[in-house]
Amino acid sequence: MKPKEIRAMSLEEIAQRIRSEEQELRQLRFQHAVAQLENPMLLRNKRRLIARLKTIYNEKLREARQASVNE
């Protein structure tokens, strides 16, 4: 998912996506611990996607707070 696509989402959508991606990451880590993953790069890609989502979420949250303070 590209940053442009994430920025088009609402705060609630991003928060929901973060929760689902973190759940998927937990499942991938468990699979990796029990048996070898077919593609271990999935772990890195999932971690980076979560970080990207959280970064943009925090940016939007900061902008919303700033806008409410300036009113």
TrEMBL record:
GO terms of biological process kind: translation
InterPro entries: Ribosomal_protein_uL29, Ribosomal_uL29, Ribosomal_uL29_sf
GO cellular component: cytosolic large ribosomal subunit
Superkingdom of the organism of origin: Bacteria
Keyword vocabulary terms for this entry: Coiled coil, Ribonucleoprotein, Ribosomal protein
MF term (GO), any: structural constituent of ribosome
Stated family: Belongs to the universal ribosomal protein uL29 family.
NCBIfam families: L29
Protein name stated in the entry: Large ribosomal subunit protein uL29
Natural source organism: Rhodothermus marinus (strain ATCC 43812 / DSM 4252 / R-10) (Rhodothermus obamensis)
Gene for this chain: rpmC
